[in-house]
Design brief:
Elements (H helix, E strand, L loop, with lengths): L4 H31 L2 H27 L18 H29 L2 H32 L1 H7 L2
Helix pairs in contact: 1-2, 1-3, 2-4, 3-4, 4-5
GO cellular component, one term: cytosol
Keywords: Ion transport, Iron, Iron storage, Iron transport, Metal-binding, Oxidoreductase, Transport
GO molecular function: ferric iron binding; ferroxidase activity; heme binding
Amino acid sequence: MIGNPDVIVALNKLMGGELAAMDQYFVHSKMYEDWGLSKLHERIAHEFDDEKGHASLLIDRILLLGGKPDLSTRGPANIGSTVPEMLQFDLDLEYEVTRQLKSAIALCETTQDYQSRDMLLTLLKDTEEDHAHWLEQQLGLIEKLGLQNYLQSQI
């Protein structure tokens, strides 16, 4: 099947974002593990797996549309030094992915690629309702409880 070239470019850009998120989540999860913050390690390792699944879906769709997965579009990973900074960097990444997903969904609508659109809507739901929402909650808890109490709850 030959897909719209603009959609393939957009899917590759999204895949680059998912791969950057994988890198960032992987490093952050290992840092949490090293610091003994087992609950954060477990959750962020789960996020890594989710991002891996998203990247896999995007690669499958790019291949189905006759495109070539382009790893050179991979975005940068922003590695934090403190828990609040790490959570904020992860949230910033999710906000950027959300923006890119919405743009790609709009492109799929105009090109009438409804299968790609539906797949991206699923990724958007994960990004907004699971990943970003959870990160917003954690930053809110740090603000409400104080950093030390929050960190104690993550052991």
